[in-house]
Write a structure and sequence with these properties.
Elements: E1 2-7, H1 18-32, E2 38-42, E3 46-51, H2 55-62, E4 70-78, H3 81-92, E5 99-106, H4 115-129, E6 134-135, E7 142-148, E8 152-156, E9 159-161, E10 173-177, H5 183-193, E11 197-204, H6 211-224, E12 233-237, H7 239-248, H8 254-273, E13 277-279, H9 292-299, E14 306-307, H10 310-333, H11 339-352, H12 357-377, H13 381-396, H14 403-420
Parallel strand pairs: 5-6, 5-7, 10-11, 10-13, 11-12, 13-14
Antiparallel strand pairs: 1-3, 1-4, 2-3, 4-8, 4-9, 7-8
Helix pairs in contact: 3-4, 5-10, 7-8, 8-9, 10-11, 10-12, 10-13, 11-12, 12-13, 12-14, 13-14
């Protein structure tokens, strides 16, 4: 019989809380599959799902549930040697391969043959009954796994990677300040992956913001519900406050004051609905206003813990930009232009995507340095590391003014030695 076997991964490290985490995961899975005819059985190390419905359709839903490390579609048999051997051959014949390896996990210590000896026995059986194949224990085409447990034995070969993390809800509830950009939904995704049940708040200011912008936020919420069902979206009318700020605040401080007001409102929503944290996608160093000084001034308006998600911002931003502007754009430009011209074109496009003269200068220097690094080394990890380091240094030195020339000069020197190697 085919069953879906779920591996917990990180949940197995939780000690005394392990049972609670598994129960939350069980309830999340049960809710996600409520429209399907399934029977779910759980224990401390695995969860098993029996169904007559479309197995792959269910697997695709399970892949988006946090707390699941991996999923396998296994053949379940009774734990006796002859039945295992008969079904192993049937499973192996379903696939084409030239080399293979057998791994046995003997969780049932009463089983009379030890793991290594049973793997050798099954390997010999496969070699005898399937022609033109050989054993390769280092890099096999086909890896057959056998889990021998007290009640049943499970035979499978393909392990499907899932989302990992902790089950949504084990860490409490948080409020996500959602905008139309990429950073805030990524911050929400990462918060959910650590077990936080997320709801969202969006500030609209017609006519300063369009209906299209609000609809985009609603679509983002729909995408997040794949990982966190039943998300509540609070839409806050912000027009009157924004226009009052325009009339009474000098332009230099408008953005800071607006964000402080948003935090005040979000804090009230949190207090009235028992949220434990405030989540946003502010990106350290991504724009000129997002320095640590500016963010500290904004955050001081509330005493609620705020997950700025520096990891999401200082790391995901540079990774995304390097993959887009170096790895993807330079490779495409080099089809039509020389290597040097491709670097300069990608750098100009990269700089123009930023706002503010100092930010554009900083982006231009990063673009030139990382363009040459990538074109010379063809290793995208090097420019990603340089970009992350440069963003953090510039941020901690509070801005992109006189520091930019010193930092740019250092980047050029470092890149020269890396290329020379």
């Amino acid at each position: 019989m085919k069953v879906i076997l779920i591996k917990y991964g990180e949940l197995t490290t939780k000690g005394d809380n392990r049972k609670y985490f598994i129960n939350v995961l069980y309830n999340n899975i049960k809710k996600a599959l409520e429209e399907y005819n399934v029977n779910i059985v759980k224990n401390r190390v695995r969860m098993f799902i029996e169904t007559d419905d479309d197995v792959m359709e269910i697997v695709n839903i399970l892949r988006n549930i946090f707390g699941i490390h991996s999923i396998v579609i296994a053949t379940r048999v009774n734990t006796n040697i002859s039945e295992i051997e008969d079904n192993v051959l049937e499973v192996a014949r379903e696939n084409d391969f030239r080399t293979f390896k057998v791994e046995t996990d003997r969780a049932d210590k009463s089983f009379p043959i030890q793991s290594m000896d049973f793997s050798r026995r099954i390997g010999a059986l496969i070699l005898k009954n399937i022609s033109n194949i050989s054993v390769d224990v280092h890099n096999p085409d086909y890896l057959l796994k056998i889990e021998i447990r007290e009640d049943y034995t499970y035979i499978y070969h393909k392990e499907i990677k899932a989302s990992g993390g902790y089950p949504v809800g084990v860490a409490g509830r948080g409020l996500l300040m959602l905008s139309g950009g990429i950073d805030s939904p990524v911050a929400g995704y990462l918060a959910m992956k650590r077990g936080i049940k997320v709801d969202c708040v969006y500030f609209e200011s017609p006519p300063h913001t369009s209906e299209m912008a609000k609809n985009k936020v609603k679509r983002l919420v729909e995408k997040l519900t794949k990982y966190n069902p039943d998300i509540t979206l609070y839409v806050i009318k912000f027009t009157d406050i924004q226009e009052a700020i325009y009339k009474n605040i000098v332009p230099t401080y408008m953005i800071t004051i607006m964000r402080r007001m948003m935090y005040r409102i979000a804090t009230k929503i949190m207090e009235n609905n028992s949220y434990l944290c405030l989540i946003n996608g502010e990106s350290v160093g991504q724009v000129a206003s997002q320095t640590l000084t500016s963010m500290n001034v904004i955050n001081n308006v509330t005493n609620i813990d705020i997950f700025i998600n520096i990891i999401a911002s200082a790391i995901i931003g540079p990774i995304f930009e390097e993959i887009l502007f170096r790895y993807s754009l330079i490779n495409k430009l080099e089809i039509y232009f020389s290597k040097k011209l491709s670097i300069w074109l990608s750098t100009i496009i990269f700089a123009l995507c930023h706002t503010g003269i100092y930010t554009m200068i900083f982006a231009f220097i990063i673009g030139i340095v990382n363009g040459y690094l990538y074109s010379t080394k063809r290793d995208i990890l090097i420019p990603i590391f340089v970009h992350i380091s440069a963003n953090m240094i510039a941020t901690f030195l509070f801005g992109y003014n006189s520091v930019i020339l010193i930092l740019g000069f250092l980047l050029i020197i470092i890149s020269y030695f890396i290329i020379k190697e």
